[in-house]
Amino acid sequence: MALVCNIDAAGKAARLKSGIIGTLGGVFIGAITLAGVVQGPVWWMITAGALFGGAFAIFEARAGWCVLRAMGIRTPL
């Protein structure tokens, strides 16, 4: 499946902002988990999910492609 550009500049900007926020959130959660403020393997899974989700949103912004739109789901931006 080819990645055909399916979002405009506003969608790219929104995905980039959410990707940066998600990635920074994942780094923050990972840091407090590593410091021992919160404990347990679930926090590492939350960290991994936030980092992966943020990185994927940044990829979508760079590529100009949205996975939800590619599946036929209409997004507001």
SSE blueprint:
Elements: H1 9-35, H2 41-63, H3 67-70
Helix pairs in contact: 1-2
In short:
By secondary structure, this protein is mostly helical. The chain has helices at residues 9-35, 41-63, 67-70.
Describe this structure in words.
- This protein is mostly helical and 77 residues long.
- It has one domain (9-70).
- It has three helices and no strands.
- α1 (9-35) packs antiparallel against α2.
- The longest helix has 27 residues, at 9-35.
- It is elongated and about 45 Å long.
- The mean pLDDT is 95.
Give the percentage of residues in beta strands.
under 5%
**Poorly predicted runs of 5 or more residues:** none
Cα gyration radius (Å): 15 Å
The multimeric state of the shown protein is: single chain
Residues in helix, %: over 70%
Number of helices: 3
Question: What attributes characterize this protein structure?
Answer:
77 residues, mainly alpha, 0% strand
